[in-house]
Amino acid sequence: MAKLLIVEARFYDHLNDLLLDGARTAIEEAGHKHETITVPGALEVPGAIAMAAESGRYDGFVALGVVIRGETYHFEVVSNESARGLMALSMDSLAIGNGILTVENEAQALTRARRTEKDKGGEAAKAALRMMELREKFAG
Ligand SMILES: Nc1c(NC[C@H](O)[C@H](O)[C@H](O)CO)[nH]c(=O)[nH]c1=O
Ligand SMILES: CC(=O)[C@@H](O)COP(=O)(O)O
Fold this sequence. Notes:
This is 6,7-dimethyl-8-ribityllumazine synthase. Keywords: Riboflavin biosynthesis, Transferase. Pathway: Cofactor biosynthesis; riboflavin biosynthesis; riboflavin from 2-hydroxy-3-oxobutyl phosphate and 5-amino-6-(D-ribitylamino)uracil: step 1/2. InterPro entries: LS, LS/RS, LS/RS_sf. This protein has helices at about 15-30, 45-55, 75-90, 105-115, 120-140; strands at about 5-10, 35-40, 60-70, 95-105. It is an alpha/beta fold. It has one domain: Rossmann fold (3-Layer(aba) Sandwich), CATH 3.40.50.960. Strands 2-1-3-4 form a 4-stranded parallel β-sheet, with helices on both faces. Helix 1 (about 15-30) runs parallel beside helix 4 (about 105-115), helix 1 crosses helix 5 (about 120-140) and helix 2 (about 45-55) packs parallel to helix 3 (about 75-90). The longest helix has 20 residues, at about 120-140. The two termini are about 20 Å apart. The ligand CC(=O)[C@@H](O)COP(=O)(O)O binds near residues 68, 71, 74 and 75.
């Protein structure tokens, strides 16, 4: 049984709850354990994963969050840099699934966060699980 750390950027409570439901369900259905920590926003997610990875306590990581476009260029910064940070960590052989939504409005977020619709939280968890499998395959 593996253990995954879910790192959620809790910027919108109701949307995060939906993403968490999807991710946790996917991990439990695969027969593994999970722990969740919360950070202020998407920009803090990669750093939190990097810190947690140093502990050696987790086999995989799921990044969750919602970035909704506002009036300024900050949307691009938050969206692109959180994704870039996660990609850099994955290139360092961390098993990560990225479930940080980057959307234009709440309606787009709701459709993608709900487990009964696009289930992006579950999708991210399954991506992390698959990367864990691949790391095991290539390590052996
Ligand atoms: N606007 C959103 C943010 N912004 C906050 C940043 O992620 C970060 O926490 C802040 O700049 C301090 O370093 N974060 C989200 O997750 N979603 C948003 O819509
Ligand atoms: C994605 C964001 O950072 C956004 O919520 C911030 O809104 P604004 O660009 O109007 O300051």
